[in-house]
Amino acid sequence: MNNIVAEQPWLWAGLVAYLVATLVAMWGLSPRLAGVEGGVARQHEKVVLASISLGVLLLTIAIAVRWVRIGHGPWLNLFELLMSQLWSLGLIYALLYWRLPGLRPSAAIVMLVMWILGSWVLLLEPLPSHFPATYYNFWKWFHVGLGKVFLGLLLAGVGLAGVMILRRTERGRQWFRAMPTDAVIDRLAWRLMMLALVFDSLMLITGAVWAQDAWGRYWAWDALETSSFFTWLLLAVGLHVRLSFKLPPWLSGVIIISIFVLAFVTYFGIPYISPAAHKGMV
Amino acid sequence: MVRILQALASLKLTLAGMVLLGIGAALSYGNPVETSIWVLVAPMALLALNLAAAILTNPRINRQPGLLVFHVGLLGLVLLAGIGRLTHLDAHLEIAQGQSFRPELMMDVRKGPWHAGALDKVAFTQGRFTVDYAPQLRRGLTHSQVFVPQPDGTVLELDVGDDRPLVLERYRFYTTHNKGFAPLLTWIPHEGEAVTGLVHMPSYPLFEYKQDNRWTPPGTEEDIKFWLQLDTGLTLEDSWVLDGRNSRGVLVVTSGDQRIELKPGEEAQLPHGRLRFERLTTWMGYRVFYDPTIQWLFFVSVAGVFGLGHFFWKRLSLVAWTDDDKGPDSKGGTA
User: How confident is the model at residue A131 (pLDDT cuts 50, 70, 90)?
Assistant: First the structure.
């Protein structure tokens, strides 16, 4: 590895805070807490929330330091994208965790998913990126911001989906004993999916406006556009399937996780394997 | 009739339409020429029919203003996208410094059968341009100067480039990575009148190693080859600005066994006449886009999404998010 650059210590510190949140959230599922009086049994949730919030703060500093160092925001290469998503997913999940106590035990799943990004970013060199002319456009702020909210809502949905699937086992039922019934979790998860659809739609619209400005066409079925359309369509299909059929909770969870996987590939895979203009380097 | 409408409004038909649309989208990936537009139009038409029937018959949709706005918005999008395809124009344009736009300069023109834009009213003259490059030839901002005549007889100078298109009569001209040099030549035949014209060299710096072209003078079979030796200050290691004002060129002219190097202002005697290299100029490549529906697409889609947001907001606030399993919709099937 090359010399340590200015943002890395802040990034690592943020990841340590996320690690603490992950471990404490997992500890909170411990059977030893079963039967403990509710208030006491949920005290660890404050530590989880505080750790995620601290992680977000440290990642904010990491992003700001990098911004100053290379002269532009975290828009382009995979290192920047992962760091930026770790920040925004942490922020959105912290807000949901704070406002929706019913989903808190699912943080153990959510934070583990976050660690896919956390481990990945540690493997990457913090190389500076080139800021292309098309990125001066102010629509990128809306497009990227809405996309972050969309992915954050999907991530929270994945936590609930994971609970519904794991509860098919005795151990899963034990871990998530403090959560509401599957029907309530299912309803909450799909509410998050509904909101995700709104933000996904707005992300596509603002992306189309940006594409029109940047490349002179609003939609051209390039790799990222096609993949993001599939994500939107799968989300819409999921919502309509749920309206059309009575789904068992585990299947509901599988659908939500499938949507997330597709969105994840769209975000972190397609832009870096496709030669399309969306790669951002043109 | 009502039964037919209800059957058409089926959610299962919606799902089938969505699956077909997904297949159509997969087939449309990369806009392959061999893929028919019908792979998208057919499922969209099916979904539009399904949606129209649902709007008419399904109280879940037509009694919920937000959901109604969203679904009508989706229908509107399909219609507008269709109108857009019928009326659009897409083309490429290479225009040299000092040259005035003429529709005949456009290349690769693709337009819908109902295209009726006022292309003949589009008037501008290309000025000079600059393109910034970061080290390792990573392209930065493009500044292209254009002169647009105004109704009062004055000329408006505009700086366009990248995400700042030149918009005239709803035609949008976007600069592209495609730009380069063009020697201005005068051909003086042994008999007949002299003609002056431009030979566009390949895109620069993309084809920096291959700045050549060929031309056959009118009324002859003489194959004249041109090779432009450029000095633009291009460097890989440092930042660099592509600017015609800082560029010099020597034109190597080859005809048969003859090989002549010309500097601007010099001329050469060739078998069928004289060729004068007047000066070196530049050309800019534009993407030309016309679609009268784009603003409407934006407004309709945003209105639709806000309708959906309104519906969800009302729906989500009906019951607590994490209440006990006793709510009115706790059995699944609705949200």
Answer: confident
Domain boundaries, chain A: 1-123, 132-282
Closest CA to B169 of B99, B120, B106: B120
Residues 131-190 of B with CB under 8 A from A: 134, 138-142, 161-163, 165, 172, 174, 176-177
Element containing residue A26 per DSSP (H, E): helix A8-27
pLDDT at B324 over 50: no
Using a CB-CB cut-off of 8 Å, the residues of chain B touching A195 are 312, 316
User: Residue A91 burial by CB count (10 A; 0-12/13-18/19+): exposed, middle or buried?
Assistant: buried
Where does the pLDDT of residue A137 fall: very low under 50, low under 70, confident under 90, or very high at 90 and above?
Answer: confident
Spell out the domain ranges in chain B: 2-88+294-315, 96-290
Distance to chain B for A164, nearest Cα, Å: 13
Alpha carbon of A178: minimum distance to chain B alpha carbons (Å): 12
CATH architecture of A1-123: Up-down Bundle (1.20)
Asked if residues B232 and B211 have their Cβ atoms less than 8 Å apart, the reply is no
Label the pairing between strands B166-168 and B273-290: unpaired
pLDDT given for residue B320 in this prediction = 57
The H-or-E segment that residue A268 falls in is helix A249-268
Determine the Cα–Cα distance for residues A132 and A72; give it in Å rounded to an integer: 11
Those residues whose C-beta lies under 8 Å from the C-beta of residue B123, and which sit 6 or more positions away, are B100, B101, B148, B149, B168
B11 touching chain A per CB within 8 A: yes
List beta partners, residue B181: B282
